[in-house]
Design brief:
Pfam families: Pep_deformylase. It is an enzyme of class 3 (hydrolase). Removes the formyl group from the N-terminal Met of newly synthesized proteins. Requires at least a dipeptide for an efficient rate of reaction. N-terminal L-methionine is a prerequisite for activity but the enzyme has broad specificity at other positions. Its EC number is 3.5.1.88. It is a single chain. With about 180 residues, the protein is an alpha+beta fold. It has a single domain, classed as Alpha-Beta Complex (Peptide Deformylase). About 30% of the residues lie in helices and about 25% in strands. The relative contact order is 0.17.
C-alpha cells in the first residue's frame, strides 16, 4: 500500500522515532509499504516518520527507478551509526522536501549497526551515496531534515526557495487526486 509522505514542515518530521520492539507481520507490512511508497515517489531511501510512523525503520534502495530496483533492498530496524570517516559535499534531496536540492557535507563512509526483520543484529558499511543515505535517513529518525545541516544563511535561502516549490508541489498533488 502506498502511504502519504509527510511534507516539511509537518511536525512528525521533527520528532524522534521510537525503538522497534516487536518483529512481526505488521512490521513486515510497514517495510513493504515503505518500499512501495519510496519507489512510487522515486526516492532512494525512506524513514518511517516520513509516512507518519514514529518507529526506527529505514528502507534504502540505491537502484530505485532503475532496472535493478528491488534487487538490493536494505532494511534497517533500530539503526545506529557506529563509525563515520572522511568528508564529502554532495547534493541531497528529500521526499519530504519535494523539488529542493542542496549541497550538504556528510561523511564519505558510514558503518551502521541495525536489526533485520527477525530482530537479528548486523553491521553494514557504505561509501559515497550509500553512506549519505544512511546518514540522511537516520537523521530523519532523530527529527532532523537535511536542511538542518546547512549554515543558517543557506538554510534561510533554501526555505525561501522551498516555499515556492511547495506551492507548486501541492498544486500538482491536488490535480492528481
Amino acid at each position: 500500500m502506498i502511504r502519504e509522505i509527510r511534507i516539511y514542515p509537518d511536525d512528525v518530521l521533527k520528532k524522534k522515532a521510537e525503538v522497534v520492539t516487536e518483529f512481526n507481520e505488521e512490521l513486515e507490512q510497514l517495510v513493504n509499504d515503505m518500499f512501495e511508497t519510496m519507489y512510487k515517489r522515486g526516492g532512494v531511501g525512506l524513514a518511517a516518520n516520513q509516512i507518519g510512523i514514529l518507529k526506527k525503520v529505514v528502507v534504502i534502495d540505491l537502484h530505485s527507478g532503475k532496472e535493478k530496483q528491488g534487487k538490493e533492498q536494505i532494511i534497517l530496524i533500530n539503526p545506529e551509526i557506529v563509525a563515520l570517516e572522511g568528508e564529502e559535499v554532495k547534493e541531497e534531496g528529500c521526499l519530504s522536501l519535494p523539488g529542493l536540492y542542496k549541497k550538504v557535507k556528510r561523511a564519505a563512509y558510514a558503518k551502521v549497526k541495525a536489526q533485520n526483520l527477525k530482530g537479528e543484529e548486523f553491521i553494514i558499511e557504505g561509501e559515497g551515496l550509500l553512506a549519505r543515505a544512511f546518514q540522511h535517513e537516520i537523521d530523519h529518525l532523530n527529527g532532523i531534515v537535511f536542511i538542518d545541516r546547512l549554515s543558517p544563511l543557506q538554510r534561510r535561502l533554501a526555505l525561501e526557495k522551498y516555499k515556492k516549490l511547495k506551492r507548486k508541489y501541492e498544486r500538482k498533488m491536488t490535480s492528481q487526486k
